[in-house]
């Protein structure tokens, strides 16, 4: 499927999502996002294993994880299967020996012969859009290098809305490697359509992209950049922690320098805003200590569960299936 | 799910199995084992492809094989699918790049968001119990290093009962690396609840665990330890052969020394007890010569088939599904 | 299942295919091939996602790809799933650590305990026949090293018939590494049952097998061997391009020498036979330039789609399922 970058899709109902690629958070305006979040509520009981559905029976998802990711892959595949659909999967090292130099456009076209919809994780920015250029079925970006992870953006927003009861009016803090963490990019982008304030906490080397900061200024959105997590905890309704992603460091010494910089402990929340919602795309290593897990605001495992709900929603929307 | 080690579960019916982890042969007493074996008989026709069932429709198995094992994995996944269930799978090398330092408890909790039941193979003793600590769905141990392999124990017992018509009164010989072979550990443990005699045949370096031998003495169970296979063949109703597991030797020369020590040939059976039941968890390399395959007592391929039957049974029991 | 090499199966109806292995193009005579092609027409609408069927419900395909191949694997697995069947899969590196020295006969017997039908890709010639010797369910060869790829042969023939409306009377050119390309071997073998002329275009080091050339002479089939692609384009109704398979060269310099030898460009077709049908088993690297893709005769992506149709047909035939 083709995709005009920056295009805004004003959805009235589900028909307009049918056949659409989901490649970037930039595709969607507030109306689109609210439509997805509202639709997702209808899918929650299926993700929570409370009800069964067969609305995707006869549909096949092509699950292409050039870079392995059990979490995201299981989330998509479970979403497909719990709605009666099926999946063909290829993971990791398998590709290096297979692609044999084929272009991603050709791969997209070939996989479209087999699948009704494709989800793809790939180490290179823009790879998903390239595959989508050749594909004749909808393509969902499940992370393209340090680029985007739009379905994670949707599930994070869904989590914020569920945990806080609203999105407008919130102060949202992001903590960690904001330069390379694609989940942060997609969520922050989507949040610009809402009335929120940002706090960005990172080492100077890992700041949010300057183009995004410029956009916030241009749109008059309140934000603060800091290296101190304390500044965020004092004000944030939502604290979005991230892992310092070891796989992006070529120098292990460099990684060691950063990995313990931001560690969220129970007392930090209790001494600031005890009801703050704490999120994390997982896996966590030691950015959040275990004693935080039992706080009422510790939402990261519920966030994972919401991933199934939101991916059910997006798969159904692009396939034109209505619950 | 949590699991109290050594706990005995006295099952009256299927409800008590629902939600239970299956981590160790030590969990089960004679009543439990007999209940599983009796229930398994009802599942046999489905495993033998004679009948179809959908009792697990809508259920998803999370199949986590940190250490690859096509046999055991296919056995579980086939069991799930032939009862109408579905599977999400992750295998081997995929994990090293994925786990990124996450604890097994976190992994268990996350996978519980996707799956209704988890089966796990892992190279470390105790790993499955760790995953189960975080999981909120039942976890089945499909082999944790040199630890246990309880579902193999059940299928081996089921095979003995089917082949011999009984378990009580039998002499069961184990041959090979008894120190590190987890299938042996789980089956031998379960057999202590029956009126059997043991013969343990191994090199001195690969003897049964001394704690288990102590337990046999304490319970007054007859056994003999020997290095000569001949001693076993003269008396055993069941001969359980094992592979000398190459993967557990760091020194290849050490492996070469042991690998040809015990080789079962057709004449050895014919000259001793011609109706002896011969078992092997497979794969066999050269511990059993091909001419043995056509003996009536050569049960190892039927044993594999019984694996599907018994895993159908256990998956259904922990999921609370009744045939 | 056992398979007598060179055996001809004269099929009247579908019953005779039931339980048969599909290991080599040499198994089939003209009547067999025409029966498969005719049956395939009935399956096309299911492969094209226009209709759904459940004729393989309750059946499990064991998909064993010792050598990874996403395309062929997805083609088989999609075929199975779109007819209501299910799949258990093992790929690539997984095997090296699993087989642990087991014979392929044993593997075939064990996998038969789980699956109703097996498809296998393996790097060694004859491996599939070896597995089939032990198996008790039908085995389909999805490529055994430089040996054969008979299901590819069927789908290529199906493509020729669909694109040209006939097979008899055509001139078919094969271009590339004809020595080692198994898809060429299987298709060329099947074409000998029809009234066709061959043109073989290859470097001298990569000529068709001399035994096959001898057979053509013996049967009085017209053919020409040449190193110049131009000779073929002037006369061929069907141009079957192949990749120079890098993985078969131990010396990279040797590969570099050959890889750009045959490159098909749009003008070459337009200046010769503009309606020529262009085929390629994919992936293509640079043997066919992108501008060819929009020619009406560019059939390689339709060829991929036909793969699902033909594999649906063959799976159903060997399983005795009738649409």
What does this structure look like?
Three copies of one chain form a homotrimer. Helices cover 40% and strands 14% of the residues of chain A. Chain A has 323 residues and is an alpha/beta fold. Chain A has two domains: 14-148 and 307-318, Rossmann fold, CATH 3.40.50.1370; 150-304, Aspartate/ornithine carbamoyltransferase (Rossmann fold), CATH 3.40.50.1370. The first copy, chain A, has a five-stranded parallel beta sheet with strand order 7-6-5-8-9. A four-stranded parallel beta sheet of chain A has the order 2-1-3-4, with helices on both faces. In chain A, helix 1 (30-47) crosses helix 12, helix 2 crosses helix 12 (300-318) and helix 6 (150-164) packs across helix 7. The longest helix of chain A has 19 residues, at 300-318. The radius of gyration of chain A is 19 Å and the shape is globular. Residues 2-8 of chain A have low confidence and may be disordered. Chain A binds chain C through residues 57-58, 60, 62, 86, 88-90, 93-95, 97-102, 106-107, 109-111, 113-116, and chain C through 49, 52, 67-71, 73-75, 77-78, 81-82, 89, 91-93, 243, 246-247, 282-285, 301, 304-305, 307-308.
